[in-house]
């Protein structure tokens, strides 16, 4: 049983890492993404999730998804297996949601490209919040093992739930920040440039070396295409030319389509 669980864990983890790589590459293609390719990956991702849960339909694997503790106290390694598989599968499901967003914003430019990044980031922080809850039902059942004594089991359960609450409060804060970003209509690292400002700057984007599209004036007074500078700020906080810090120190962006690959075990 342990060997079987080990190989399944390796398989679903490898599949998730490959899926994350695919999603990032499709996001980077921007307007060159093909609907048929995105739909194909979407079907594969969904079938993979349903296939894993169908295979384990007679086990307690799916219980924690609904915040329900397993029916019986799981052995330690079985608890770890349950948590890892669920944690991996919900990330796979979130990647499917992100593919739908890439399909919706397939030809998006300017404001819509920036909105795509905000939506991808919101999905990721919603996922991180949900994943923070996922291990709780499993460890709740595990720590309430009366074989170790009522006092010990109650103490460990209380300590675990206390630390878990602290983690969840932090995740709620990050999710709320990502949600508020959707209501922000202006570009929070500058403003849209006027035609006079664009002409004065030469009407040539220093990033793509082409005529500016939806030009954005940064706080340092340099102007770039909104698409170009939005993609730049997915990785940086400074101006591409003068390196002045113009983007506020905000939550991490997941606008490149990436998914956090760290396991949420506790």
Automatic annotation (TrEMBL):
The record ties this protein, via Gene3D superfamilies, to:
Zinc/RING finger domain, C3HC4 (zinc finger)
Localisation per UniProt entry: Membrane
The membrane topology noted for this protein in its Swiss-Prot or TrEMBL record is: Multi-pass membrane protein
Pinpoint the RING-type domain residues. 205-243
ATP-binding is among the record's keywords:
no
Q: Which InterPro entries match?
A: RNFT1/2 (IPR044235), Znf_RING (IPR001841), Znf_RING/FYVE/PHD (IPR013083), Znf_RING_CS (IPR017907)
Q: Which domain of life is it from?
A: Eukaryota
Q: Which residues cross the membrane?
A: 35-56, 76-101, 122-142
Pfam families assigned to the protein according to its UniProt record, in alphabetical order: zf-RING_2
Which GO terms fall under molecular function for this chain's record? ubiquitin protein ligase activity; zinc ion binding
Q: List GO terms (cellular component aspect).
A: membrane
Q: Name one GO biological process term.
A: positive regulation of ERAD pathway
Which keywords does UniProt give here? Membrane, Metal-binding, Transmembrane, Transmembrane helix, Ubl conjugation pathway, Zinc, Zinc-finger
Annotated CDD domains:
RING-HC_RNFT1-like (cd16532)
Name of this protein: RING-type domain-containing protein
UniProt source species = Mikania micrantha
